[in-house]
Amino acid sequence: MKRCALLVVGDELLDGRVTDTNSDFISSRLLPLGWRVVLRAAVGDEMGIISETVSLALQVSDLIVVTGGLGPTQDDLTREAVASALGRELERDPVIEENLRSFFSSMGREMSPSNARQADRVRGADWLQARLGTAPGQWIEESGRVIVLLPGVPREMQDMLEKEVIPRLKGRYPGGETAAAVLLVAARPESEVGERVYEALGDIEGLKVSFRALTGQVEVRLAGDEPDLVEEGRRRVSEALGEWVVAEGEESLEGNLGDELRKRGLTLAVAESCTGGMIGERITRVPGSSDYFRGGVVAYSYRAKETLLGVDAALLREKGAVNEEVAEAMARGVRERLGSDLGLSVTGVAGPGTGGEKEPVGTVVLGVADGEGARALKYRLPGNREMVRAFAANIALALAYFKVKGVKVEDLR
Question: Which domains does the chain have, with CATH numbers?
Answer without folding.
Answer: 2-172 (3.40.980.10), 179-248 (3.30.70.1130), 253-412 (3.90.950.20)
